[in-house]
Amino acid sequence: MTTHAFNDTNVMLGRSLKHVTRSVDTIITVTIMPIAFLLLFRYVFGGAIEANTDNYVNYLMPGVLLIAIASGISYTGFRLFNDMQNGIFERFHSMPITRSSVLWGHVLTSLVANAISVAVIVGVGLIIGFRTSAGVLAWLAVAGILALFTLALTWIAVLAGLSASTPDGASAFSYPIVFLPFVSSAFVPTETMPGPVRAFAENQPVTSIVDSTRALLDGQPVGSDVWLALGWCAGIGIVAYVFAVLAYRRKVR
């Protein structure tokens, strides 16, 4: 990325972040729902769930973080759709700026906003009993996995925002993604599930991401799960990026 493109992207990032900070209801929605799930499973369902662990909050945390990210990226599609409908893109394209910076501003905003949401949820987790033996390198690995997951889903959100015909359609794509952690190893071991459900749970991206993140936070070997997680994130992100760029070119030509 050239210096000119970098500067343009930085300006677009600042613009999008201002919109986020001015929308308090968005911030509350993105953080409150995952925290509610965390508290619900910790204090209501936790006593009835056998997860083979002495600290169920530790078991819960990776799945709750993924739910928070999946919830947060829906607003990226919504904001992008509004920009398209309000003619903002056309105004930007009439200026001497790098065209890709408009998309990257939204993508980087998603990374920043979701990082803040994740930090808040981890803080709440620490208050209610979350503990970790992870060192600095393990935390950096967790941050890297979550960042890749956020990027992959954000490019799906960009594609949805560019392709949708209504504001609800621009954000509704996230509902199935939010549901995925519930059919994974996020809340219960997959061994406890019926055959067909278990087969799906063990072969969808969230399970490998949850398992590798949980192992890193617990200071345990990650095995092949981390490579599966990285492969899923990279594969989804690349495919979504290609289709999003194609959709963007059709919109702005």
UniProtKB/TrEMBL annotation:
Keyword list, A-Z: Antibiotic resistance, Cell membrane, Membrane, Transmembrane, Transmembrane helix, Transport
UniProt main location, coarse: membrane
Location within or outside the cell: Cell membrane; Membrane
A UniProt-annotated Pfam family: ABC2_membrane
TM segment ranges: 24-45, 57-81, 102-130, 136-160, 226-248
Membrane topology of this protein: Multi-pass membrane protein
InterPro entries noted in UniProt: ABC2_TM, ABC2_TM_bact-type, ABC_2_transport, Nod_factor_ABC_transporter
Domain of life of the native organism: Bacteria
ABC transmembrane type-2 domain ranges (all copies): 25-251
Family: Belongs to the ABC-2 integral membrane protein family.
Designated name of the protein: Transport permease protein
